Prior knowledge:
The structure is a single chain. This protein is of the alpha/beta class. It folds into 4 domains: 15-214, Cobalamin-binding domain (Rossmann fold); 218-355, no CATH class; 393-584, pyruvate-formate lyase- activating enzyme, CATH 3.80.30; 587-737, no CATH class. The strands form 9 sheets. Strands 3-1-4-5-8-9-15-14-13-10 form a 10-stranded mixed sheet, sandwiched between helices. A 3-stranded parallel sheet has the order 23-24-26. Strands 2-16 form a two-stranded antiparallel ribbon. Helix 21 (591-603) packs parallel to helix 23 (649-659). The longest helix has 17 residues, at 555-571. It is globular and about 75 Å long.
Amino acid sequence: MDAQIKPIFSYRKHWAQRFGIAPFLPMSRGEMRALGWDSCDIIIVTGDAYIDHPSFGMALVGRLLEAQGFRVGIISQPDWHSAGDFRRLGKPNLFFGVTAGNMDSMVNRYTADRRIRSTDAYTPGGAPDKRPDHAVTVYSQRCREAYPDAPLVIGSIEASLRRIAHYDYWSDKMRRSVLPDAKADMLLFGNAERALVELAHRLARGENIKAIRDLRGSSFMVPRGWRPEGWSEADSTTVDTPGALHARPDPYAHVTAVPGPAGSGNTVPSPLPSTGEGPGGRAQPIRFHGREERLAAKKLARAQTVIRLPSYEQVKQDPVLDAHASRTFHLESNPGNARALVQGHADRDVWLNPPPLPLSTAEMDHVYGLPYARAPHPAYGNAKIPAWEMIRFSVNIMRGCFGGCTFCSITEHEGRIIQSRSEASVLREIEEIRDKTPGFTGVISDVGGPTANMYRMACKDPKIESSCRRLSCVYPGICDNLNTDHAPLIGLYRRARALPGIKKVLVASGLRYDLAVRSPEYVKELATHHVGGYLKIAPEHIEEGPLAKMMKPGVGSYDKFKALFDKFSREAGKEQYLIPYFIAAHPGTSDADMLALALWLKHNGFRLDQVQTFLPTPLALATTMYRTGKNPLHKVSAASEEVSVVKSGRQRRLHKAFLRYHDPENWPLLREALTRMGRADLIGNGKKHLIPSFQPAGTGKARQRAGARQTRSGVAPARRAAAPAKPGSRLKPARRP
């Protein structure tokens, strides 16, 4: 990676810094006047309620830009039915920044069964319907209507996951990149602090946003075939590496440098193995003197190559090309060696620069140390915002995840390289919570991140890290080059709980148990001091078929972790339980796999209270499997591996029913399936049976028929009350027979 990185806190501040720090970023003209502002430099439009806390994107980005000297306003959850609400703060001097919020708007609004959710955790009172479908696109179109000539920048997880042509589960079709639909000037993907700060300063200096084409982590529309001077284009089919992804090929292999255009002083690569023009126009290899010169030439050639993905029109029509494009996209995701990508959309191209470079620890500390009010905006009064209630006593200590789970969107957005805060920064935030957050009782509800125990973990060798093309550092096994030392995290836990006024520090984020078992000391520390009765982990399944498609470890790692966790819990005199998360209907899962999982759950005494059905999110590798029936974890062709996919509503309900084998409502469906599968021996009233042969009155089909009769007679059927569970729990331990 480039060693000459300009830290995000080293820029000369914009002149508007003279206005000082706002208690809250303004959401109205009245607040702007109170701050002495006549206009905003940047206006952030968001689908979430504005909570001034670093766990919420609009606050983190807004405070970061404020620290650069810019005047930042917030338009939160605007009425999108007209452009009026988007004129609330006037025209921005530099640009509109549009985000759907902390979640993709479609995931936020719809369940895995495509039903509209009844609540929205990011809205005051949990009210639904405060944001539109495809919020980034809709908000951007309204910004264009309000001020057609204002530069428009889109970002956040929704934009990140939709930066190229992608499968949209809710409409069951391929959609274009969000860029042409939103009519945005630029898309910033991933955690975009570095690109955002540079972009704001360059626009403030008078640069035209349509001329800024060199920002890492940015994407934009260009005329078909456009590329910078001295660059070359390679078709994606020439760069795919055959075989499994755990191989570690040299990223500079098979690239031969050739002279660039006359007078350019650059070298560019050729997709051909032998390049350069000799006598008679015949291709000749270019020779360099010395190993270092040859390596430098290869690196330069590779850096000035753009990889052309199959176009939107091609992936829409051909599932094999879609799977190939997905594989290529993920292979070009390491900031240390990723190349630019381009994808045709009709007569234009979507151009993606390489991913953003991760923030250093000092930069992470800077971002999380900004003067957040750590509260919802006063405009919401006493309204409860569920997401705020959930995280207000928690601390995010890192970002990124090198697990590479195929169904997860974290790595597509935050990347695989772990970016950690310093211990001092984390402890300062805990003290701020203690001293400033109303209602604090001495309990920190979570010290974690996307994965709780990846804090400060990284590749042992930066050179290997910068050239690696693996999609996971822990699958099919933990990489020998990965530092799995838990000592820094143990030290952080101990110092956090030793702070005055801190009674308990909990770990509520899910953790990676295959890493944890490498440090029994960590498991002991966790079980003894940092678990509040339940601990979340995610085996997701027990069978090799689905686990291989998820890129998850086998159940043996879970068994080792459970043995350690139970042992240290007993030694601490505590009754504590693991909360295992499982996914139903994941690609590669058969009915027999789900039956095996149900038997495992019963054998281990688990009765899951809530279960998750696979939800195909844009860009995820598992989503590619779902849409194409192909496995992008290996080289893709028409004859390559087929993946079984669960798509019908009935089969998805069956897989979910296996996870809740104990629920009488599921017994009719399970009896039918077990009989069809030749496993009627599991139907009966003994301990060895999975489900009973009798059906309690008022449940299953009888309950459905009764409900239908009551509805016809004008009386609505009574709803069965759910059994209470501890907050955050998705599981209740089964009663032993």
